[in-house]
Amino acid sequence: MLTGINFSPSLYFLFNFCLQLVFPTSIEQLRVQSLVFIIFGIVLSFLLTRKMFGKPAAFFATILVLSQSHLLLSQAQEARHYAMFFACGAWVLFVQSLDDDNAKKNKWLTFFSHFCLCQVHYLGIIFSGLSGTVYYLTSKKNGLWERIPIPIAVSLLLSVLFYFFYLINQKSVLNTWSKPNELSDLLTTYNDSLLIITILIPFIALSKTSYSKGDTKTLPKKETGCSTAIMITSVLWLSVPFLFWVLSHLSSLNLFVDRYFIPKESALIFLTAYGFSFILQKLNQRNLKNIPLLGTFGLSLILILVSTKRIAFGLNKDTNYHHSLIIEETYPPSEQPIIFEGDPKYFPNDYLGKNECLFSIKNESLIELYQNFSSKIKFLDQ
């Protein structure tokens, strides 16, 4: 990061730098850390929806989204910062449900949640800004600055200053690779998170036999107002992929990458829980709730197994592109250096340290760029 190759928001890198000082970890162990962040975000999403809609709806929504979301399942296995991005997004939504916004403790929690969200990824400020907009729209106070909580305003201001510093020190151009942005890609972004039909499956039979017109149970007044604000935030967060898909067609800037929008998964859990709570209120016999509970649990297990099978296929050495770049384990260690053309082959083999590796590259400007990146890179002509 300090070389300027990827001078992006630094929370993930700073966190692991400090962790490395106390508990040295390998790159492979960072995958476990990603799993922990995904679990943390899932727990926060469950606690939020349980508080708003009760345990059954929270369970249905959480397990359905978790078992189907390709983003959550894949990023839980990656040594990257997107799992932390999701956890911070879930934290922001959870803090939005706190009862007393004026309490000193809650103000600090609001500030840190929004600031962390902005410091994990550049698009964090978009999600934080949308949440701040909801505070402004739903507040009953008068005046601009009174309607927007001070912790969020300070967080956004500091983040803008940090972003300005990051962009000044960015020495290379990122996001230059081509990104698919057809209509099918937009639909896939949403479809990979949750199949809407899976929400309806546990209730199709029950809706015809258990519907009760007299059951008009509603949420408590205080929770209803709070859940309305979070619901608006969730809808706005869920619209972010669509907004960036439109932007990719209106300008040369294309940031339409599904993992950039991973905080929307926590918003999807909230909206799904709201849908389940609406349906559950129509069930007049309490014991019937066990049927959709078991049906949803069984369906989710099947979906997780299917996803695990798909991932296992991708990790197989015969189908995984990464393994084709690595020198065969049967290749005998040699004192003679091995020459590689292209960084996809050089870096993984040099990292393993089994043989001395040399990087063959003829472009002088690229050599200088790689030298700034790391002095440990060994070039063929040096």
Helix and strand content put the structural class at: mainly alpha
How many beta-strand elements? 2
What percentage of amino acids are in beta strands?
under 5%
Helix run count: 19
Amino- and carboxy-terminal Cα gap: 25 Å
* Oligomer type: single chain
Question: Helix fraction?
Answer: 55-70%
* Largest sheet report: 2 strands, parallel
SSE run? HHHHHHHHHHHHHHHHHEHEH
Q: Mean pLDDT across all residues, rounded?
A: 80
Strands side by side in the biggest sheet = 1-2
User: pLDDT below 50 for ≥5 consecutive residues: which ranges?
Assistant: 209-223
Given the C-alpha coordinates, what overall shape results? globular
* Rg on CA atoms, Å: 24 Å
What is the structure about, briefly put?
By secondary structure, this protein is mainly α.
Explain this structure:
There is one protein chain. The chain is mostly helical. The chain has helices spanning 11-22, 29-53, 55-68, 70-75, 82-95, 104-118, 124-138, 144-147, 150-169, 183-191, 197-200, 204-209, 221-238, 240-250, 264-280, 290-315, 321-325, 343-352, 364-373, and strands at 338-341, 357-360. The protein has a two-stranded parallel ribbon. Helix 18 (343-352) links the parallel strand 1 (338-341) and strand 2 (357-360). It starts with 10 loop residues before the first helix and ends in a 9-residue tail after the last helix.
